[in-house]
Request: fold
Amino acid sequence: DVQMTQSPSSLSASVGDRVAITCRASQSVSSHLNWYQQKPGRAPKFLISTASTLQGGVPSRFSGSGSGSVFTLSITNLQPEDFATYYCQQSHITPYTFGQGTKLEIK
Amino acid sequence: QGQLVESGGGVAQPGRSLRLSCEASGFMFNTYGMHWVRQAPGKGLEWVAVIWYDGSSQYYADSVKGRFTISRDNSKNTVYLQMNSLKVEDTAVYYCAKDGRGPYIYGSGGMDVWGQGTTVTVS
Reply:
């Protein structure tokens, strides 16, 4: 199985900051890497597909990059509604594994 | 965009069975793959299973292989998760989700529509 490892596991930042979350796969997943946002008690929200394709309605301050086995989710100009937990997930090969999550908290 | 509504969660004893259902609306259900994803209390997301749009193939997480079965009834716009030989560690909120890749494509492009989740407690 492909192991997905996110870093950091938690992150404190202020409104207006720029942050980056890294996701590493234990083997190449090509560009089949997705990002989700989850808020407490809510279902996940699909942010980015195929490493860098922003889903409809997702603000442009979110961006994704990378290919192969290293990927990055970047958020610029953090807004209060961005404080949440973020997950990467590979859809290259089953089982489609998630990273352990990165909790983004307000400093 | 679509909507998904899960049902069937509840409390079950270890070794018993439960069947979850997820009814879809607002999109061409029979043209998209469907997933189940779970989240144990206080833990991260765990992908559970996927079924292709035509039901031709199903794939599972190692943790549920041989115990859980995903199926679909395209005439009822519904996907199911039959959970047998339940374990305490199966306790979680179970989400169904629509695959973002399609229509009529095998494989996955991520999960773009999610249900609200149904809670399964094994105790």
The first strand of chain B starts at residue 3 and ends at 7. Chain B touches chain A at residues 35, 37, 44-47, 50, 59-62, 95, 100-101, 107-117 (CB under 8 Å).
